[in-house]
What does this fold into?
Amino acid sequence: LHHHGGLTLEEASPGSATFRLPVGPRWRRRDGAVAPAATLFLCDAPLGTAVLSALPIDRVSPTAELSVFYLSPIPRETTELRTTAHLVHEDGVTGFSEADIVADDGTVVAKSVTRIAITPVPPIELPPTRPVPDDFVPHHLREEGFDGPEHPYMVLHGMEEVAVNPSIAILRMVTNAWHLSPSANLYGGTCAVFAQAAADALAEAAAPEGMVAIPLDLKVQYPRPIGPGETLVCEARTVHTGRRIFFGEVFVRRDDGKVVTLGTSTHRFE
It folds into this structure.
């Protein structure tokens, strides 16, 4: 996740964790603005780590539910986002934490909260760490051109649009080792970015002529884990289109058709 998206742990202590995320060209939309979905990729790690830091060594903290509320547009000149998450509650079964996402000019751009499922360490064996080659360029810093309808941040994660209209948006993504958390399952922040990309595409297609869709929130739940090599399909469907407010629902399914992520989104037309 560090080499792929830029996610970086700065510090952690019992009940607290701070991460930062550089947002270069590959974390942006086609118009050059920083993608709001970057906040989702950033916040999931510190939210889980804030809970993990308070647990016994034989327990882990997979994300069960993640909510992000967008408070302010990310300033276009932003080059880094940062967040510090704080533990709210932990009872050995469930944990809760919260965080503010802050741009490098001090603007609080989003608020996030999460519910964590506290579980035993899974019986997995991770491959040994390999040294980084001298000529390796992290994925989020690469400057290849972007073709097709997808935003640069979608290209970074291998997400592609299958069908988009005012009623439904369908996106596809094949998971690989770059998408995995230390538990060897798909990082919850990546799956949330996938859901937000579909929700945004749907809202943009439904926006009245001459208006744009601004994301207000995304709330997602994770009922099942996702491993590498899965072809994920995300469907975002319209629930309600008003003159100013748009509501959608999202479902992410893996190869076997089972739902691995579900949630709701809200956008504002302006």
Q: What stands out?
A: Residues 188-206 form the longest helix (19 residues). The chain has a mean pLDDT of 94. Residues 179 and 186 are 6 Å apart (CA to CA).
